[in-house]
Amino acid sequence: MTPHDHIPVMCDEVIKLLNPQKNKTYADATFGQGGYSREILSKTNCCVVGIDRDKEAIKYAEIIKKKFKSKFFFKNERFSNIKNIFKNNKVDGITFDLGMSNTQLSSKTRGFSFSNNGSLDMRMGMQKDDELTAKKIINGYSEKQLFYIFRKYGEERNSQKISKAIVSARKNKTITSTYELSRIISNVNKFRNQKKNPSTKIFQALRIFINEELLELESALKSCLKILNKKSKIIVVSFHSLEDRIVKNFFRENSGYSANNYKHLPNLERTSFKPFLKLITKKAIKPSIEEIRQNPRARSAKLRAAEVL
């Protein structure tokens, strides 16, 4: 295994819950390096459609295509387009791993990681020159706008101080690299006793905002209800509270969990709700201590699953 190999988080748990069956079709909505796709195809004689907006994923898709041939297909698209990808076809299960791939984190040109000095980009797709990048935000957005992004998408306690420090620093020099930005953040957060790198939440906020990740997730989950056959599974592995909250609320609202708690509604109104999903995981599943030891990236992961009724 090379340093750039991506280890799919809670792969055993995902495959066990999905329980792929012969001649069925499954969607790996966050293909990355194809960890889930490879495992699903290895379990039984089924078909998998991998989806990823990142062009870097294409080379990994070609490797799997070469091995599994007509059993595997790949779409270089946003997973929010899943309804259009399948059109009139239905699938029998779908998996999401919402974490960053090692390919993205290890690339200096992508700007996702504060551990590598690179350009402030952070686009998942890297499609067009006129697209929004981290560099454009850091050097062009007002202090108020930066505060909003850092607070809403990063839940960073020192959002105001960091926003002010960025605006002050860019008056002297355009901020162009991940190390420059990380240094500014660290100077503000240097007295905080925390396990995570001081830049973690700011980099997370920028990435989520640039790639519209929360809107993408909400849209994809809604589309799942239209493309999945009955008894199919939706399995999501998320890595921070904003994503997990969206998944948890979506599963609960569509399973009748919330409706059953609306005690103030008349009985007729409460019982008229028809659930679309059945919760498989009442609470989020977390990775084992052994997995975290072998793959520290898994430490913040939460797995939730539901079945289409």
Describe the protein's architecture and organization.
This protein has helices at residues 11-18, 35-43, 57-68, 82-86, 102-106, 134-140, 143-154, 159-170, 178-189, 200-211, 213-227, 241-255, 267-271, 289-294, and strands at 25-28, 47-51, 72-75, 91-97, 228-238, 277-279, 302-308. By secondary structure, the chain is an alpha/beta fold. The longest helix is centred in the C-terminal third of the chain and has 15 residues, at 213-227. A 7-stranded mixed β-sheet has the order 3-2-1-4-5-7-6, with helices on both faces. Helix 2 (35-43) links the parallel strand 1 and strand 2 (47-51). It has 2 domains: 11-103 and 214-308, 3-Layer(aba) Sandwich (Rossmann fold); 107-211, DNA polymerase, domain 1 (Orthogonal Bundle). It is globular and about 60 Å long. It is built from 14 helices and 7 strands.
Strand content: 5-15%
Low-pLDDT runs of 5+ residues are 262-268
Q: Largest sheet, order of strands side by side? A: 3-2-1-4-5-7-6
How does the helix and strand content classify structurally? alpha/beta
Helix/strand order, N-terminal first = HEHEHEHEHHHHHHHEHHEHE
Structure characteristics:
309 residues; alpha/beta; DNA polymerase, domain 1; 2 domains; 7-stranded mixed β-sheet; 14 helices; 44% helix
